[in-house]
Write a structure and sequence with these properties.
mainly beta, 1 helix
Length: 378
């Protein structure tokens, strides 16, 4: 099961694996004339549980929303005995608190998808190749230049501007059965997209790595974080296979390197932090190098006096109570609840909507005779 992500509802979202027999599944990502097969396919469930008692609240099967037989060039990288081909490889799930929906990154589909809590698909961000007719209304249309699609991506997040930031690994930069880009000629980047859900259009508003400084290619893992304190972007290139078209080591061609960079969010980004993790003195041909899954800025490293909790409001509705407040953007908070002001229990972790603004929905408050809340910081 994937790492849990807290939501504004006092719940946690997880990714969990499952398997299903799928008919008419391709046998090749390079030969369109290859025969089809009936085979097991590994897919992911998005699972939502209570943060207080771990009760199962929701479960969504992505294979039921999408096209089980669609593949990309990564689809045959993994075969799990008893489970089958890794057809989706979901690697991140987040909540979009603006409309109570869920966003998932599917690496082996070159797609980021958004769906409602009722399981209704809202949009698909990624190349349009090989999607069936029933999915055409959900494919976002690119507008403006420059624009490039995401391939084998990781770590989507919603920025304070309402845009979507993600790590675009860039694997092959093509879909079956087009000509792929060799790894040595490829690059990875951090990209920011603006999505208009009314017009179903997407534009690229910022990226780093496509034309900036050194050309890094990491064929797996990686991260992209918006830093609320500075407005900079923290980038984790977690498994660099090629640096400017060459392996990081002249002695061990399979060795990978880690590069953590922080850049300004400008039209011409400036590097303000750059750390490489690699033993350049190692001449052993079997040296494997270094790999990293994610990079995060630790909030405690920012030296400042904590900002107080202010403007705590509770809005009641038929579905419960919505709590919102302003506080220190780099601290972690817990909402606690009590029926009598004497006995307190943790309700959940509020979700930041913009830096310094937090929200949490208490669905259990609907119909309660009395309920008190307080904010605790850790």
């Amino acid at each position: 099961m994937h790492d849990g992500v807290p939501t504004s509802h006092g719940t946690i979202l997880y990714l969990s694996g499952a398997s299903r027999v799928v008919a008419n599944y391709p046998t090749s990502a390079t030969d369109p004339a290859a025969p089809l097969q009936t085979t097991n396919v590994d897919y992911q469930r998005v699972v939502e549980i209570s943060a207080t008692n771990s009760a199962l609240l929701n479960s969504w099967n992505l294979i039921d929303m999408l096209q089980p037989t669609r593949i990309n060039y990564l689809a045959f990288d993994f075969y799990f005995p008893g489970l089958g081909w890794d057809g989706e490889h979901a690697n991140a799930v987040i909540e979009d608190p603006r409309d109570n929906s869920v966003i998932v990154s599917l690496r082996h589909q070159d797609a980021v998808v958004k769906f409602t809590r009722t399981g209704q698909l809202k949009w698909i961000l990624g190349p349009h190749n090989n999607w069936g007719p029933q999915f055409q209304p959900y494919l976002l249309t690119p507008v403006g230049t420059p624009f490039e699609w995401n391939y084998g991506q990781h770590a989507p997040m919603i920025t304070p501007q309402g845009t979507l930031l993600l790590h675009d690994n860039g694997n092959y930069r093509a879909e079956p059965y087009d000509t792929l880009v060799p790894d040595a000629a490829n690059y990875s980047r951090i990209v920011e997209y603006s999505i208009n859900e009314q017009t179903m259009e997407v534009s690229q508003v910022w990226d780093y790595g496509r034309t900036n400084a050194h050309r890094l290619f990491t064929d797996k893992v990686g991260s992209a974080d918006w830093l609320p304190q500075t407005g900079n972007v923290l980038m984790g290139f977690g498994s660099i296979d090629y640096l400017d078209g060459n392996p990081p080591s002249a002695f061990a061609p399979s060795a990978t390197m880690v590069r953590i960079q922080e850049v300004t969010h400008d039209a011409n980004p400036q590097v303000v932090f750059d750390l490489a993790a690699f033993d350049f003195s190692n001449t052993n041909a079997s040296y494997l190098g270094v790999t990293m899954y994610r990079a995060h800025r630790v909030p405690d490293l920012y030296g400042h006096l904590p900002q107080p909790v202010q403007d705590l409001t509770v809005e009641l509705s038929d579905s419960g109570a919505t709590l919102s407040f302003s506080a220190d953007p780099v601290r972690t908070y817990t909402i606690q609840t009590s029926p009598d002001l004497a006995h307190w229990t943790d309700l959940g972790t509020p979700t930041p909507t913009v830096p310094g603004e937090f929200v949490l929905v208490d669905t259990a408050a609907a119909g309660a005779p009395a309920c008190y809340y307080r904010v605790a910081s850790h």
